[in-house]
Write the structure tokens for this entry.
Amino acid sequence: MKVDGACQCGFITYETEIDPDSVRICHCTECQTFSGSAFRIATSVAEEDFKLLSGKPKIHIKTAESGNLREQVFCPECGTHIYATSIGDGPRNFGIRIATLHQRNELTPTRQIWYRSAQPWVKDIGSIPHIDTQ
Ligand SMILES: [Zn+2]
Ligand SMILES: [Zn+2]
């Protein structure tokens, strides 16, 4: 499925090809901190299928629990996280952040990972009172 995306301010734009059946929710504590939210939603694409159309992202390098280094790639202007990837020579996969895609409403996650650190209320989010706008 061909998709395109952008950061919040529009400085970074990109297009890529994803498998709509491999969208995952990650509940790890680092995704919670990086996003400032309860979880992040991602899918993996091959580096050669990712085409940056505008902007130059900033790269933050972090050490994973395994000791591996990971690049966290985000917009230097608005801070929107675009993808994460490994360090070193390819072939690499980019973990694209689904919420930056214009087609995000068409994509339903099929898997949840790091569920052991999921925020307890997430498991029953439908029961929290809600209104259609703020
Ligand atoms: Zn931006
Ligand atoms: Zn995570």
The pocket of zinc ion (ligand 1) is lined by residues 7-9, 11-12, 75, 77-78, 80 (CB under 6 Å). The chain has a mean pLDDT of 94.
